[in-house]
Amino acid sequence: MSTVITSAPRRKVAVAGIALSDCGKVDDATPYALHAQAARRALKDSGLDKGVIDGFASAGLGILAPVEVAEYLGLKPTWVDSTSVGGSTWEVMAAHAADAIAAGHANAVLLVYGSTARADIKARRRTSNLSFGARGPLQFEVPYGHTLISKYAMAARRHMHEYGTTLEQLAEVAVQARANAAANPDAMFRDPITVDDVLDGPMIADPFTKLHCCIRSDGGAAVLLVAEEYVADCAKDPVWVLGAGEHISHTTMSEWEDFTVSPAAVSGKLAFERAGVTPADIDIAEIYDAFTYMTLVTLEDLGFCAKGEGGAFVEKGRLTLTGDLPVNTDGGGLSAQHPGMRGLFLLVEAVRQLRGEAGEGQVRKAGGRLPELAVASGTGGWFCSSGTVVLGR
Question: Where would you tag: which of 69, 71, 292, 302 has the fewest CB atoms within 10 A of its CB?
């Protein structure tokens, strides 16, 4: 006699709470304090009690991350994730948390991050890191001065060589990010800039001048994901996790098959397929932008334009709040804040936009309608990893 095994129905997963800690210049707080501040604010935003949290995800702080952070927050979770894959960490963690909640392994998972990267350097508690280390495969690159930014610069130059992408087109990404930041009162830099401003800035790593590169700030963020049965008790309407994907590509540049293709080409395809939508359905995109080239190539790899057409795609204000595809609506890492692994900030901003809580920076569709679908795509390392999450009202 054969036994028929049936799987339990998977629960829907919602974003119940979001928040940022104090961001920008925060000289009087520790990273732990920023974690706690963001977590408290996200819990308040959700309207739920701290006792519902049975899952916790964190990375980047402590020797036993996230054990130390959970203890600091007074949490004793029965589901935990400490995945650390750079800037894409939080989209990957959100995917893991959503799967765990859907399967019934957790009910409410808190994702939280905090960093005093800017303050630490100003106070000389640390120095700027030129590399992620010199062990393992990286030992063959680091001695030759192949820094993180130089790897991105090399990839950008390859795209320029292959497809004719111009410095002016890359500069447009920074200009439009700053235009979006102008409507965000919490953005670190809000004064308008021009293409010439970007091109005339001090060279950091050819072809990147200073304004091609993300800012360095302090700050934290938190997102609370919950099972669908908690939604009725939440303070606000839910934003649903519709689909997610993740992918890792390489660590050494010699193992990267094509400098013009990021791992978002895989994570994005998976996320859209699992969400049952296409890039054409998306209203806003929050994309990791440590450098201008990241935005341009990720737009290609997510399918918003064909490979090699990213340069033309980002022209003519397309990425601004009133453009065809608003991108990095808070100003992104190029202008708003970038305290390190910024992927969690992408999720917070996407949810704010879908809820209609972005104030002057709120995107509106035809007839004044709120956006309905958003994608957040994080990148880690030097295009080493990618996590993409599709969210919807």
Answer: 71
